[in-house]
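[step 3/7] fold_predict: job queued, chain A
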Amino acid sequence: MYGQKTSVAVAYCKRGKGLIKVNGQPIEHVQPEGLRDKVLEPIYLLGYPRFSGVDIRIRVRGGGHTAQIYAIRQALSKSIVAFNQKCKYTYISLGLEETKHKPGRLDVDEATKKEIKDILMSYDRSLLVADPRRCEPKKFGGRSARARFQKSYR
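[step 4/7] structure written:
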C-alpha cells in the first residue's frame, strides 16, 4: 500500500518468459497514461534483463488511479527482490550465470538481492517501504478525529 491510501496490489512472481500483467492486461496498457512511467520505473532502474526470466502477475484493487499506480510499482519492486532472494535459479545452459551447480537448481543469491535493493532504495524509498499512516477514525464531541465543537457558556 502507498501513503494513506486504501489501494492494495498483490504480485505473484514465478519463472517464465518476462511477462508482466496487471489485472490480466500487459503492464504497458496501465491507465492513466501520464502515470505509466511511474509503474515502469522499477524496470527502467533494474534493466529489462532482470525481468526477462520471470512472469509477474499483479492484482490491484481499491483506492483511486494514482494510489493503484503506486501500489503496483511497490508490489513489482518487492516481488523482484523476493524472487531474487528466495527463488534465484541458475541457468548454465543459457549462459546467464556462471556457477558450479546443475542447471535449474534452486540457489539463494543474497548478493543479487542486496544489489537490487540498493538500486531501488537509492532512487525512491517508497518502492520498497510502505507508508504506515492511516486515516484516524472520527470520535464523538467533534466534527473530525481531533477537532472538537466550540464551547459556549450562554
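[step 5/7] annotate
The beta strands are 8-15, 20-22, 25-26, 54-61.
The longest strand covers residues 8-15.
exit 0
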